[in-house]
Amino acid sequence: MKSAVILFPGSNRDRDMIKALEMISGKPVATVWHTETSLPDVDLIVLPGGFSYGDYLRSGAIAARSPIMGAVKEAAAQGRHVMGVCNGFQMLTEAGLLPGALMRNASLHFVCKEVKLLTANTNTAFTRSMEKGAVWRCPVAHHDGNYFADAETLKKIEDNGQVAFRYAEGTNPNGSINDIAGVTNEAGNVLGMMPHPENLVEDLHGGLQGRALFESAFANI
Amino acid sequence: MKARVTVTLKNGVLDPQGKAIEGSLGALGFEGIAGVRQGKVFDLELSDRDAEAAKADIEAMCEKLLANTVIENYAIEIL
Prior knowledge:
The complex is a heterodimer. Chain A contains five helices and eleven strands. Chain A is an alpha/beta fold. Chain A has a nine-stranded mixed beta sheet, with helices on both faces. A two-stranded antiparallel ribbon of chain A has the order 5-8. Chain A is globular. The model of chain A has no long low-confidence stretch (mean pLDDT about 95). Chain B is of the alpha+beta class. Chain B has one domain (about 1-80): Mth169, Chain: A, CATH 3.30.1280.10. Chain B is built from two helices and three strands; from the N terminus they run E-H-E-H-E. Chain B has helices spanning about 15-25, 50-65, and strands at about 1-10, 40-45, 70-79. A three-stranded antiparallel beta sheet of chain B has the order 2-1-3, covered by helices on one side. Chain B is elongated and about 45 Å long. The interface of A and B includes residues 100 and 153 of A.
């Protein structure tokens, strides 16, 4: 399975993501600059974390309107897999590829800590090889991770099983509604999540629990 | 031609920044504040054109970029 990471001005977790993808897939990862208008022939497109455009206007808002995003939307519509982590998740909601919005943390503080995630849905390629209901450690680092969706949208994503991950055991770090940490689109080929699984994939990180998600994606896409 | 766009959070959307400002105003001794909601103002300078056409353009700008209509409302004023 081939993957690509899109680079935006202000991305800063792109190298962590590339390293994790390369280490776990054993294959080189393509990089694509945001001004491009077409994507290489890859199976997984990743939007990394960071502070694209300095979080001006709203986090991820300007990056979501970059030239490359037309190709990302097209790829998603064709069923190719797209994953956004942290700022990448914010971009995917701003681009309309995922429901809801990510607002300022309820505490108003930037949070950089470890949380516990519950795998809520194993019906997508991203999560199929993961254990449903399992709770795992994962780092978060964000200021705008407070997931919000109106009542109607929330009901729809809950009924459809689009909530992929929840903050578990009282570790919700940002006030997200229903403890939502990650959601997919209706078709299940687009995933966004605030926590950083790419930062818990080697011994030096202090754990390997972030690997399962990538291993699942590589096994099932 | 000038126009002003005001973007505000929709009712029912939690505004922790507004809450913090409300608390700070209270700490300064201001009384009787029932609530504070924080928003954004954009002042646009446009080449001269028909006001109705300008309004339609700005509405498209709001829908596409200036506001996130999942959480925000917008109001347009031609000045």
